[in-house]
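Hallway conversation turned thread

IA: we were arguing at lunch whether anyone had actually written out LRAT domain-containing protein end to end. Turns out nobody had. So, for the record, here is the sequence (284 residues) and right after it the C-alpha cells. Reply here if something looks off.
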Amino acid sequence: MEAPPGPEPKPGDLIEISRLGYSHWALYVGDGYVIHLAPPGENSESGAHTGLGMVKRELLVDVVGQCFYKVNNHLDHLYKPRPIKDMLSSGIEMVGMEMEYSVLSRNYEHLVTELKYGKAHSRQFREEPKPGDLIEISRIGSSHWALYEGDGYVIHLAPPEEKSEPGAPTGLGVVKRELLVDVVENCSYKVNNYLDHVYTPWPMKKIIAFGNWLVGRKMEYPVLSRNCEHFVTDLRYGNFPSQQREEEPRPGDMIEISHQFYCTWALYVGEDDVIHLAPPGKAC
C-alpha cells in the first residue's frame, strides 16, 4: 500500500484508491479499517457487470493492495457532511448486505458519498450519456469510440480480431451493438461530442436507426484512415474526422507507437503500410 504525502485518514474520511483507468472508493471508519462496496465477483473493478455487490468492512491495506490512495473529501464544499457517528453507524449496519451494483448508477463512490453526505454522487463519468452521444473510452495509448443508443447499449466498430489496439492491422472490423459496460471493461469513459461546434449532428433517431442498420456488417478497418472514431463521427455528423493522430503521415515520416510501458518506431511508406523492426518472438 502506498499513500502520497497528505493527511492521515480520520474516521469519516473518504478514501480514493487510484487504479488503472479509474478510482475505487471507501469510507474510513478508524483503526485501519474501511467500509466499501465490493462489486460482483468481489473484484473492485470499474468494468464489473451490473449485479449484486456486497458491502464489506476490511483493512485499508488489504483494499488498497499495491495501489496509491489519498484522503479526498471532494464534496465538502457542496454538501455538509453528516455527523461522524451517523456515517459510521449507517455504514456498519450495511456491512454484509448485498445490493444492486451498477457501474453507471450505483457504484462504490455512490455508496460512500451517500454515507458521508446523504447524497449519492459519482465522478467516474463526467455525465450520463444520452442517445446519440459519442462515447470516448480511454485505453492505454489510444481511445476507443462508440455511439450511445440508450438503455445501456452502444454501437461501435470493433477492430479486426475484436481488439481495440492502436497498432491493429488493416482488416475487416465488425459493427456491433453491445452493453456499454462490456465495451468499457476496466477503463474509464466520457461523453465527448467534440465536433458539435463544427458540424450539426443528424437527428438523433436517424443516427441510431442508421447505426442499427449497420450492426453485423463487416467493413475495412485501416487504423490510419477509417477507425472506430471515424465510424461514430460519420454516424453522428455525416463527416468522419479523427483525433487519433495529430496529422496524416506522409511517406518517409517516422511513426511513434505507444505501448503500455514503452514505444516502438516505424517508417511510413504510404498506403497505411510501415516498415519496422519486430522484436524477438514477434512475427514479421
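OS: looked through it. The chain has three domains: 14-117, 134-237, 246-284.
IA: good, adding that to the notes. The first strand starts at residue 14 and ends at 19.
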